[in-house]
Amino acid sequence: MKNRRLIFAAKLGLTALLLWALYRKLSFADLSGMVASLRPAPVLAFIALLFVNTFLSALKWRLLLRADGVDIPLGRLFASYLIGSFFNLFLPSNIGGDAYRVVSAGAGGALSKSFTSVLADRFSGFVALAAFGLAASLVGFRLFQGRPALLLPLAGFVAILAAIGIAMRRTWMERILAWTRAGRIAKLRDFALKCSDSFEHYLGNRGLLLRIMGISFLFQAIVVLCIRLLCMSMPAAQTPPWLDFFVFVPIISILEALPVTIFGIGLRDTGYFLFFTQSGVADPNAQALAISLLYMAATVAYTSIGGCLFLARLFSARRPEQQRSAP
Question: pTM of the prediction?
Answer without folding.
Answer: 0.81
